[in-house]
Structures are given as structure tokens and as C-alpha cells.
């Protein structure tokens, strides 16, 4: 995801400095080459050796060290960087940058870079609410600096409130988003994910194996690419994706009303959810007792949400998925036409590495003009970007 990216990670002196280790691990795992710059205060909290070992690069601490015979540290770091991240960023370093002070390696590198700078503040709640700090943040935002806001929590100083460093996973997401092309800026993307659950009685339900992974991957990719994203999710074990408005529902009828509530303002909608086609005709208020050798459950059809959207779609772009175990192309093609879609992702859920609950998928993309694109097995995160690419292509072709 970050293969070939050069990232400068600045670490300043705060108790959250140890969390920068986790961030560094996420960045290197994603393929980035990370060069760590530590302030003198940061080294009071954590040893440079930890960062050196994990980054496999020397840690930069000194303004007057030459990287090679010709290269001056701060200029070389500033020039090479695709992004400069400071996590944790103290009130002091933020104040310094806002005032244009460059008196150590980190602040000088910030001053000298043309790359985007992302600041992840962490401090005491009173410092965080201090009007001088707020003014500095406003000023830096006006100049294009990016921020990952801290969260509320128990702070190391004993106070409770805002000022706790954001989770490194979310800082990582912001870095990926900052480095992504914003080709979906201005789009309102609506995505459904996961299964629905249809209750039989207080302890039993009808559902399916959808984990939500495919839909969540789409939501995350759309957010990174600049869209405002709403994810309507059935019950899953996944955390709400960072930056995405996530609405949790349980039944198909709940999913329908949530989807209809958001569809009006959407420009692109992609329905990944495995919606239960049927629900029990009645829900027993008490646990159904085991009596006879056999029992019959009467089912009624659930509304077909996607088909309803197809009727209302106007100039919105609409895509669905088709989970099939046989006659993949024919069945998916029939759904594409009947539900009035621009594209359908045909998913042979019986094939290895495809469909429910795995990290990969194998699909064919079917379009209205009869074109079929056969894709090899890939990560759901990679497929998500291809699906969004095709939606954008269809939009541009329509608007041309
Ligand atoms: O969540 P994962 O574990 O990552 O798995 C991903 C997935 C297998 C669920 C996903 O890739 C997939 O194939 N989703 C579609 C599942 C499905 O319900 O397919 P379908 O052929 O039954 O439905 C066709 C389309 O109509 C789907 O877009 C579905 O969201 C929609 N639908 C279906 C029934 C219904 N009552 N209302 C609907 O809107």
C-alpha cells in the first residue's frame, strides 16, 4: 500500500512517544521506507535504538550530522520525503512550527520540506484547550498542514479529557489517505456491507457467512480517495472504518430504511451486503421449545433494496454484487439488467480464495454494454480500488 514511499517520522517528547513505535511498524509493514527524526526530549522517553532496529535506518537526532559527505541532514530528509509525520506532536513543536522557528533538526526539516506535513498532537487537556494552541493549529491548517486530532481519555498527567494521541492505526489511515490521489473528492459514496440477521426467536436467527470485509475495504478505499462515505453495515466483528460514517443495522428492513435515508444525497452507491432474501413470517417472543421431531419455519420475502434503488437511481451510479455458486455470468447478468445497475461484481463464492470471510476475492465485472472483465485473485483492498476506478470511468464516460 505504501510501497516505495519515503516517510519522515518525527517523534517529540511526550509520554505517547512509545506509540510511535507501533506507527513505525505499521508503516514499514505497508512497504514504506521510514526515516525517524527524534527531538532531544523524545530521547528522554524512548531510546533511538528501538526506532533504528524497526526502521532499518539510522535515527536522526542531530542537526549538524552529515548523512554523507555532501548531504546535509535536514535538507536531504526534507527533499526525499513524500510525507512528514510528527507523532506525537507536542504543543511546543506545534507552536514552533506555527511561529516559523527552525532551531533543531525536526523543526528545520519541517521548514525545508515541500511534502505534506501531518501532525498528530498529544498533550494535557488544558494545553489542548489553550487559546494560544488553538490559534497555532488554525494558522497551520490555513497553511495546509494536516492534523489527526487527539481523542478523549485518561491522560498520563492524571487529567481526563482531550489530548490523548489518536490510535496509531488511525494515524496510519490518515497517512495513507494523505498520500492517495483524491479522485473521489466531492463524491458522496454509499456502501452496504455484511450480512443481515432475521430473528426467529430471542436466541436464534437466519443469516449468512458475510464478514463485512469486502464492503469495509470499499468504504476505506473511497475515504482515502477523498469521498464522503456512508457505510450501512449489518452485524460484523469489524471496527468502524476510520473517516467513514458508519450506520449499524441488524435486519434487512432496517438496512432498507437506512439505505433509503442516505441514497438521495449519494452520487455513487455500491451494495456489497449479503441481505437475507427471506425472514421468518413471525418472530416468537419466547424461545421456541423442542417438541416434535420436525418443525416448519414459514418465511416471507424481504424487500429487494438494490432493485428499489435501481428504480430511483436517476443519474446516480449504482453497482451491486452477485454471490453465486453456479452459472455465475448468466445469473449476475440477469441481476444487472433486472436491478437497473451500471455494474455488477460477479462473485463465485464457491471458488477458493473468493467470497465470504476471506481477505481475497475472485470476481468478474459485468457492465451494461455487455463488457465483462475477468479479474484474477487479489486482496479485497486491491479489488476495492479497481471497483472504484471503474465507477469513476463510467461517470466520466457518462459526463463526456
Ligand atoms: O462480507 P465478506 O465476508 O467480505 O463477503 C463478501 C460477499 C461475498 C458478501 C460479497 O462479495 C458479495 O458477493 N455480496 C453480495 C451478496 C448477495 O447477497 O448477493 P445476491 O446475489 O443475493 O444479491 C445481489 C445484490 O442485491 C447484492 O448487491 C445485494 O446487496 C442486493 N440485495 C439482495 C437481496 C435483497 N433483499 N436486497 C438487496 O439489496
Topology:
Elements: E1 6-11, H1 19-29, E2 33-38, H2 42-45, H3 48-55, H4 73-80, E3 83-89, H5 91-99, H6 105-112, E4 117-121, H7 125-129, H8 131-142, E5 146-147, E6 151-154, E7 160-164, H9 168-179, E8 188-193, E9 198-201, E10 204-206, H10 213-224, E11 228-233, E12 245-248, H11 252-263, E13 268-271, E14 278-280, E15 299-301, H12 305-312, E16 317-324, H13 328-338, E17 343-348, E18 360-361, E19 363-367, E20 372-374, E21 378-379, H14 380-399
Ligand PMT is lined by residues 192, 194, 210-214, 252, 271-275, 277, 302, 304-306, 320-323, 335, 347, 349, 355-357.
Structural features, described:
The chain is α/β, with parallel strands linked by helices. 35% of the residues lie in helices and 24% in strands. The protein contains 14 helices and 21 strands. The strands form 6 sheets. It has an 8-stranded mixed sheet, sandwiched between helices. The chain is elongated, with a radius of gyration of 25 Å. The site of ligand PMT has 28 residues, from helix 10, helix 12 and strand 16.
Short key terms for the protein model shown above:
Rossmann fold; eight-stranded mixed beta sheet; alpha/beta; 14 helices; 400 residues; 2 domains; binds ligand PMT; five-stranded parallel beta sheet
Short description:
With about 400 residues, the protein is α/β, with parallel strands linked by helices. The chain has 2 domains: about 5-180, Rossmann fold (3-Layer(aba) Sandwich), CATH 3.40.50; about 190-285 and about 295-400, Rossmann fold (3-Layer(aba) Sandwich), CATH 3.40.50. It has 14 helices and 21 strands.
Amino acid at each position: 500500500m505504501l510501497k516505495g514511499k519515503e516517510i519522515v517520522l518525527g517523534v517529540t517528547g511526550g509520554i505517547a512517544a512509545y506509540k510511535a513505535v507501533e506507527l513505525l511498524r505499521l508503516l514499514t509493514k505497508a512497504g514504506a521506507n521510514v526515516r525517524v527524526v527524534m527531538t532531544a526530549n523524545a530521547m528522554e522517553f524512548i531510546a533511538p535504538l528501538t526506532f533504528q532496529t524497526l526502521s532499518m535506518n539510522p535515527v536522526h537526532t542531530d542537526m549538524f550530522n552529515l548523512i554523507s559527505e555532501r548531504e546535509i541532514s535536514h535538507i536531504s530528509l526534507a527533499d526525499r520525503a513524500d510525507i512528514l509525520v510528527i507523532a506525537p506532536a507536542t504543543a511546543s513543536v506545534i507552536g514552533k512550527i506555527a511561529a516559523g522557528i527552525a532551531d533543531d533538526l525536526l523543526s528545520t526539516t519541517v521548514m525545508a520540506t515541500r511534502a505534506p506535513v501531518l501532525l498528530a498532537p498529544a498533550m494535557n487537556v488544558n494545553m489542548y484547550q489553550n487559546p494560544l494552541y488553538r490559534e497555532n493549529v488554525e494558522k497551520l491548517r490555513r497553511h495546509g498542514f494536516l492534523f489527526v486530532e487527539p481523542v478523549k481519555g485518561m491522560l498520563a498527567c492524571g487529567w481526563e479529557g482531550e489530548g490523548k494521541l489518536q490510535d496509531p492505526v488511525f494515524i496510519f489511515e490518515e497517512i495513507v489517505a494523505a498520500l492517495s490521489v483524491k479522485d473521489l473528492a466531492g463524491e458522496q459514496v454509499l456502501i452496504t456491507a455484511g450480512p443481515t440477521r432475521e430473528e426467529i426467536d430471542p436466541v436464534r436467527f437466519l443469516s449468512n457467512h458475510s464478514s463485512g470485509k469486502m464492503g469495509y475495504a470499499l468504504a476505506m478505499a473511497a475515504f482515502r480517495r477523498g469521498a464522503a462515505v456512508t457505510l450501512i453495515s449489518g452485524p460484523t466483528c469489524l471496527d468502524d472504518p476510520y473517516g467513514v460514517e458508519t450506520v449499524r443495522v441488524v435486519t434487512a428492513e432496517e438496512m432498507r430504511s437506512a439505505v433509503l435515508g442516505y441514497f438521495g444525497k449519494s452520487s455513487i452507491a455500491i451494495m456489497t451486503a449479503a441481505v437475507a432474501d427471506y425472514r421468518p413470517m413471525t418472530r416468537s417472543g419466547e424461545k421456541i421449545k423442542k417438541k416434535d421431531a420436525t418443525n416448519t419455519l414459514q418465511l416471507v420475502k424481504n424487500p429487494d433494496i438494490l432493485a428499489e434503488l435501481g428504480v430511483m437511481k436517476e443519474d446516480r451510479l449504482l453497482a451491486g454484487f452477485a454471490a453465486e455458486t453456479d452459472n455465475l455470468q448468466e445469473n449476475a447478468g440477469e441481476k444487472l439488467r433486472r436491478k437497473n445497475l451500471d455494474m455488477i461484481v460477479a462473485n463465485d463464492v464457491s471458488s477458493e480464495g473468493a467470497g465470504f470471510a476471506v481477505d481475497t476475492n475472485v470476481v468478474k465485472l459485468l457492465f451494461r454494454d455487455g463488457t465483462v472483465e475477468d479479474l484474477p485473485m487479489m486482496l479485497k483492498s486491491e479489488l476495492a480500488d479497481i471497483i472504484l476506478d471503474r465507477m469513476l470511468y463510467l461517470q466520466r464516460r457518462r459526463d463526456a
